Amino acid sequence: EWLEFPLEWYSEGALEVDDVLGGSEASAGQGGEAPSGSNAQAVNVEISEGKKDEREGVIKIPGKGVFQTYIFEHRRNVHCYYDPDESAWIKLPLKWELKTDVAKKLGTYGPEVAAGFEGALSREKSIIMQNENYDEMAAKLTTAERKLERREVRVKKLEEENNYLKSKIAEVEELLATTKAECSATIAQVEVLQRERPVTAKSRGGSGGGGASAAAAAAVAAAAAAQTQETISKDELKKLYDGVKSMHKVYLQLVSETKTQKEFTSKKITELKESMKRLKQCGSVTEEQIEEVRTLYRREALQRKLLYNQLQELRGNIRVFCRVRNETSAKMSLATPNDQDVVTVGGNDKKMFQFDRAFGVNSTQDEVYSVVSPIITSCADGYNVSIMAYGQTGSGKTYTMLGPSPNPFSNPGVNVRAIQELFRLCAERKDTTDYTMHISMVEIYNECIQDLLRKDVKQVDLRSTGTKVTLVDITEQPIGKEKDILDALDQGTSNRKVAATKMNSQSSRSHLVLILTVIGKDLVTGTRTKGTLTLCDLAGSERVGKTGATGEQLAEAAFINKSLTSLGQVFAALRDNQLHVPYRNSKLTHLLMPSLGGDAK
Ligand SMILES: Nc1ncnc2c1ncn2[C@@H]1O[C@H](COP(=O)(O)OP(=O)(O)OP(=O)(O)O)[C@@H](O)[C@H]1O
Question: Which of 91, 189, 197, 405 has the fewest CB atoms within 10 Å, measured from its CB?
Answer without folding.
Answer: 405
